[in-house]
Write a structure and sequence with these properties.
This protein has 115 residues and is mostly beta strands. 3% of the residues lie in helices and 50% in strands. The chain has one helix and six strands; from the N terminus they run βαβββββ. The strands form two sheets. The protein has a three-stranded antiparallel β-sheet. Strand 4 and strand 5 form a beta hairpin.
Amino acid sequence: MLHLSAGEIGIDQGSAMLFQDFKHDGEMWTGAGPRSSRHTVQFSRPFKAAPAVTVGISMWDIAHDAHTRADIRAENITHESFEIVFSTWGDTRVARIRADWMAIGPLPHPDDWEL
């Protein structure tokens, strides 16, 4: 659980096109088996500590003639950035994915001491 004190709380959010593999016959569109794609997101302003981050698929374009398998998550969360990781497996063919994200956490205060 992220515990936030009475100080300043920041909320940052955005949208990211993770890949468009149909344009160049990329691995997500033409491959099979386990595959992953990583996309680094920089926060618009650093948090005081690593925030809580949620990620969701806001657009997907997937082949209709295969099973739909998808996993999306936030990894490597720091006070400055995180990675969106999209994974699929089996015969799933993904043309493109867009993800929306939101981060909530404490912001640094001008009176904070740094030792």
